């Protein structure tokens, strides 16, 4: 029996889909049989992050409505044989699926896969209800901004009200230089405010833009800092104790490179 | 500009953010409506008025957090300006 993990945040644009694609891919790289599920019906994007947008024939709504079998809607990844995508419909809206149907679907997937990673839409309405319906665990993604932290807190409250107590936090897009100056909420500030277990810290990384452009998750890029952080998250999900990346040791940018040459520590 | 900042010892913006967030979350978590606070306010005025003449327009009641630092349990704080104590109240 596999584990279903929903990736959620409340606020949009904090990196739920990026996180889903990267964690899913990293778990597959570690040898697990993984399916990533797009629960953002009407605004699907997970296919783009994986570069699989041209291979979609059937989708999640087709499965629920009985138009096709579950296996027909699953798309095998380009790079990893043990990674699959279950896309959703782009031309339907969130009411096309009910939480009960979603639960059944996830239960079916759990028989086939080790990990089911569900990409939740922004908001706390029907789409959220569907995405969390079959989940055993939740990953709450936030960024170091007041609005994202507030929404994360609201989502944590919603998850707890549903009895989904196994939830952990990913802090995305941390800019070390700004936290050092006291101009950005740091990790301690955020875990202090949200009182939730920390699963990962993802540094701001321009490589994420590049990898999304190409449809290749950053975890496949050895040189991506964010990719490395996501690979660590995947290992933690599997129960391994992995220390958090020391953001300080890796200054980036031209100035930092020049500084490194002249002021060797 | 940076030099000015250095001397003025302006609070780092992340501390401002953290303080604002703590207060916002107390409200969000308690799920207290403005109507609720108005009701409490009305009742407080009624009770206190038996003992003192109060300045109703200056009465302020707000939800904040108990203790100085760290604790996040919510607290109702009322500021009730008194014009004059009533004879009965002394």
UniProtKB/TrEMBL annotation, chain A:
Check the record and name the InterPro entries matching this protein.
AAA_dom, MinD, MinD_FleN, P-loop_NTPase, ParA/MinD_ATPase
- Write the record's keywords in alphabetical order, separated by commas: ATP-binding, Cell cycle, Cell division, Nucleotide-binding, Septation
State the Gene Ontology terms under molecular function.
ATP binding; ATP hydrolysis activity
Task: Name its GO BP terms in alphabetical order.
Answer: division septum assembly; negative regulation of cell division
* Annotated AAA domain residues: 5-157
Whether NADP counts among this entry's keywords is: no
List the GO cellular component terms.
cytoplasmic side of plasma membrane; cytosol
Segments crossing the lipid bilayer: none
| UniProt record similarity statement | Belongs to the ParA family. MinD subfamily.
Q: What does this protein do?
A: ATPase required for the correct placement of the division site. Cell division inhibitors MinC and MinD act in concert to form an inhibitor capable of blocking formation of the polar Z ring septums. Rapidly oscillates between the poles of the cell to destabilize FtsZ filaments that have formed before they mature into polar Z rings.
From the Swiss-Prot or TrEMBL record, give the protein name. Septum site-determining protein MinD
Q: Which organism is it from?
A: Caloramator proteoclasticus DSM 10124
UniProtKB/TrEMBL annotation, chain B:
Q: Which UniProt keywords are listed?
A: Cell cycle, Cell division
Superkingdom field: Bacteria
Per the UniProt entry, what are the Gene Ontology biological process annotations, in alphabetical order?
cell division; regulation of division septum assembly
User: Which Pfam families is this protein grouped with?
Assistant: MinE (PF03776)
* SUPFAM superfamilies according to UniProt: Cell division protein MinE topological specificity domain
**Purpose of the protein:** Prevents the cell division inhibition by proteins MinC and MinD at internal division sites while permitting inhibition at polar sites. This ensures cell division at the proper site by restricting the formation of a division septum at the midpoint of the long axis of the cell.
Per the record, the similarity remark reads: Belongs to the MinE family.
- Official protein name in the record: Cell division topological specificity factor
| Organism encoding this protein | Caloramator proteoclasticus DSM 10124
Q: Which gene encodes it?
A: minE
